[in-house]
């Protein structure tokens, strides 16, 4: 059990009052309240529900951005501890409450550094889970003049020993997006299906054949995962032959190039299967996450800093399969995302019994501080 500190208390407060992606208004207010004693040079609202803190005044010198995500998930919490979620059907099941608390702890460290070369920005980013938050921040005019030399972020990692730092050069997280396919046929009486056009068999055929494009080997350059996540068709009206349906597939690859190829293969498959059926197809792509690309120098800085602090460091061989919208930052700026072990017995991310490991707040904040010292010495 962690010794309680103001930062652990704050983390648990965020856990009690979770907010979904794009709705983090109260979360931002809570962060503003807790960081105000740590005297940032500026506080800026960004990305609709995000917050940016500035430390250091100098317009010359290095610029470093450290990012944490702040949104929760539409998952009902099953834990029964004192800080359990008070919002029905919403909870922090990815540890973004912990990531935010780490950045608040870092703000307290930076408040004790009156002479800082250049500028450091701490970004509390909304809407990571939907892949919309990074884009909202980067598109915000308030962000336009901030051109970081380095961008860093972390994610807690269940399944790794507590406090272990995990990183790799190149792709750290996967490229992820969701393909939504709609099938519009024609409703008829279920006794006379020949008078309508029922999309059921086309939907089933497409779903089955999409499975042939999967390459589950995460070490392969051609890694491609296709996960059916949702389907719907017709109504629970047993005298009616369905005329409309949807299939939603989540796609994962190591690179954007493989993602483009996989998407085109699926669209080509759809065109072939639906030809001559009379079924009208539409497709849409949503929740796009670019692979987080760790720059070689930034990776080296993470490794150097972790070892200097005496942390256990593991260089991962293949990217994680999940997506992270920090990848969009790494499309624009040199940087790195790393992981910090949350414990081998911790429930997995997005599981209903997950909770962030409070013992990570201090060591993670110290690692970010070390990275800042490297840039701004």
UniProtKB/TrEMBL annotation:
Membrane spanning stretches: none
Binding site for Mn(2+): 94, 96, 129, 155, 350
GO MF, one annotated term: hydrolase activity
Gene3D superfamilies documented for this protein: 3.30.70.360, Zn peptidases
Family matches, as InterPro entries: Amidohydrolase, Bact_exopeptidase_dim_dom, Peptidase_M20, Peptidase_M20_dimer
Cofactor(s), names only, from the UniProt record: Mn(2+)
All copies of domain Peptidase M20 dimerisation, residue ranges: 178-273
UniProt KW Metal-binding keyword: yes
Cofactor binding note from Swiss-Prot or TrEMBL: The Mn(2+) ion enhances activity.
Protein name in the entry: Amidohydrolase
Alphabetized UniProt keyword annotations: Hydrolase, Manganese, Metal-binding
Signal sequence segment: none
């Amino acid at each position: 059990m962690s010794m309680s500190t103001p930062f652990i208390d704050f983390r648990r407060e965020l856990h009690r009052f979770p907010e979904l992606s794009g709705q983090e208004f109260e979360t931002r207010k809570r962060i503003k309240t807790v960081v105000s004693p740590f005297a940032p040079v500026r506080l800026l609202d960004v990305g609709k529900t995000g917050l940016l803190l500035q430390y250091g005044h100098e317009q010359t010198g290095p610029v470093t951005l450290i990012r944490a995500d702040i949104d929760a998930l539409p998952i009902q919490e099953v834990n029964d501890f004192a800080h359990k979620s008070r919002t029905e059907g919403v909870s922090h099941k990815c540890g973004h409450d912990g990531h935010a608390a780490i950045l608040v702890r870092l703000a307290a460290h930076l408040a004790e550094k009156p002479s800082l070369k250049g500028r450091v920005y701490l970004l509390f980013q909304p809407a990571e889970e939907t892949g919309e938050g990074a884009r909202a921040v980067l598109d915000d005019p308030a962000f336009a003049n901030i051109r970081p030399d380095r961008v860093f972020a972390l994610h807690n990692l269940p399944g790794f020993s507590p406090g272990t730092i995990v990183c790799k050069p190149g792709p750290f997280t996967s490229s992820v997006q969701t393909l939504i396919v709609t099938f519009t046929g024609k409703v008829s009486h279920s006794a006379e299906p020949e008078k309508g056009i029922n999309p059921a068999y086309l939907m089933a055929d497409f779903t089955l054949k999409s499975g042939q494009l999967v390459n589950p080997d995460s070490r392969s350059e051609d890694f491609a995962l296709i996960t059916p996540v949702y389907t719907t068709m017709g109504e629970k009206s047993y005298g009616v032959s369905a005329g409309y349906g949807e299939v939603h597939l989540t796609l994962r690859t190591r690179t954007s190039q493989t993602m483009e190829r996989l998407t085109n293969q699926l669209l080509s498959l759809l065109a072939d299967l639906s030809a001559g059926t009379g079924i009208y197809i539409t497709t849409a792509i949503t929740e796009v996450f670019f692979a987080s690309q760790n720059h070689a120098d930034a990776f080296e800085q993470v490794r150097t800093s972790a070892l200097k602090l005496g942390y256990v460091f593991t260089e991962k061989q293949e990217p994680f399969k999940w997506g992270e919208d920090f990848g969009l930052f790494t499309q624009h700026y040199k940087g790195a995302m790393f992981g910090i072990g949350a414990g081998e017995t911790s429930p997995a991310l997005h599981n209903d019994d997950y909770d962030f490991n409070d013992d990570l707040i201090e060591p993670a904040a110290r690692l970010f501080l070390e990275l800042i010292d490297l840039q701004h010495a």
